[in-house]
Design goal:
globular, mainly alpha
Amino acid sequence: MERILQNPYIQLAIHLQLCKLQREQLPSLTYQHIEDTLRGYVWKRKQPQDLQEAVNDILQLKVGEIVAFLTKQVIIMGKSADLDEVYRKIGGMSK
């Protein structure tokens, strides 16, 4: 999976989708949020077989899917981490 995420075309597709989603729906969204969602939700179920499939997955990603995945991760993390750690994960604190 790391090989996929290091591909410059995949990185470009993630940046393009990030800009679109930030502009249209969620300005606070980050590259890392999308990458975490791809790694932990979209591609955890089924890894793409080729570049075209990976790019399609990225461009079809919806804000609702990202928010749902991140919310679930924060809930899971909140059970075992301290509150400062949870805030850092969701971008609520700078350090």
